């Protein structure tokens, strides 16, 4: 079959799913979503009409195309790869944390029932061959007993009053927040919320008490949770790593460096200089002399601190203390 036929069939399914998900849409908005011309949308709508799809359109500024109320298309437009990927989309642990474990299982069962037999076999194999484990190594997932309540406020766009324990003084504070979204990072849940002046991040496990208020709020126009999270991480790292150090790594130290430091440090180390003796001279960002000392001691004799002097002296003092303990 011609490739163009496959493309058009996929586009028709996408058009149906868009109308099913968003309701009324203009020809121009459909064309923008599907990256085709408005004339192509008119032809596709005529094809769907001819196929018996209950689709109608209204003229005028507030018009557009819409499916007949109650019409739902079946998932026959899924490709094999799309069906397989759906079995990786829902992490069972986090879904259960949010009270959605049963819903995810039910949705997967319904999907399996709707798929043709060959595609069903391929999709089921995905779950038996890949498992996504969200928590980081050496850390147990945090208990967040108020997560379900916080998620409810996020979903229903309700103001949330929280008692929050933070790291600096005063430790216990009370805030009324506009909860914008939840993020799971390395087994820990974080609430992104707008306070009285700005959007901040709150660790859900540090929320001591919470009350969902019977008052809704308007989300900031154009707010993108994923983009905000990426930007806030970059800003946090920029504020955290305010200093730098120059170190020399042996070949073995270079090979193991990335597994012993945070990604932001490992990334900076990619810009290295190879000396005549085969060692690697690297400039890395550091949070503080104390923090860098602990980080570099993990590499033992495979690293030498060149700059700053304060860091070199502190590492030297730590090595001497260790030698006095083990050598007597």
From TrEMBL:
InterPro entries: CBASS_pafABC_assoc_protein, DeoR_HTH, HTH_11, PafC-like, WCX_dom, WH-like_DNA-bd_sf, WH_DNA-bd_sf, WYL_dom. Residues 8-81 form the HTH deoR-type domain. Keywords: Transcription, Transcription regulation. The keyword Protease does not apply. It comes from the Bacteria. It holds the Pfam family WYL. The keyword Transcription regulation applies. This is Transcriptional regulator.
């Amino acid at each position: 079959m011609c490739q163009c036929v496959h493309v058009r069939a996929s586009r028709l399914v996408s058009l149906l799913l868009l109308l099913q998900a968003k309701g009324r849409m203009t020809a121009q908005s459909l064309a923008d979503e599907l990256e085709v011309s408005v004339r192509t949308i008119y032809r596709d709508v005529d094809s769907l009409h001819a196929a018996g799809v209950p689709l109608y359109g209204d003229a005028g500024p507030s018009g557009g195309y819409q499916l007949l109320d109650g019409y739902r298309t079946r998932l026959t437009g899924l490709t094999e790869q799309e069906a397989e990927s759906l079995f990786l989309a829902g992490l069972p642990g986090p879904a259960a944390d949010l009270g959605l474990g049963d819903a995810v299982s039910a949705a997967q069962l319904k999907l399996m029932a709707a798929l043709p037999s060959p595609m069903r076999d391929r999709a089921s194999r995905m779950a038996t061959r890949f498992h996504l484990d969200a928590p980081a190594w050496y850390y147990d997932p945090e208990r967040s007993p108020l997560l379900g309540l916080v998620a409810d406020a996020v979903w229903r766009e309700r103001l949330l009053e929280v008692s929050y324990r933070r790291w600096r003084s005063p430790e216990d504070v009370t805030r009324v927040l506009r909860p914008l979204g939840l993020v799971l990072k390395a087994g820990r849940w974080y609430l992104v919320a707008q306070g009285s002046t700005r959007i901040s991040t709150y660790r859900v496990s540090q929320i001591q008490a919470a009350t969902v208020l019977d008052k809704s709020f308007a989300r900031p126009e154009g707010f993108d949770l994923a983009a905000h999270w990426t930007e806030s991480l970059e800003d946090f790292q920029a504020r955290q790593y305010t200093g730098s150090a120059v170190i020399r790594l042996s070949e073995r130290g270079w090979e193991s460096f990335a597994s012993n430091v945070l990604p932001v440090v490992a990334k900076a180390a990619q810009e290295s200089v190879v000396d005549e003796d085969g060692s690697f001279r690297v400039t890395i960002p550091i949070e503080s002399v104390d923090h860098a000392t602990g980080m570099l001691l993990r590499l033992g004799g495979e690293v030498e601190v060149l700059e700053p002097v304060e860091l070199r002296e502190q590492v030297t003092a730590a090595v001497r203390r260790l030698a006095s303990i083990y050598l007597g």
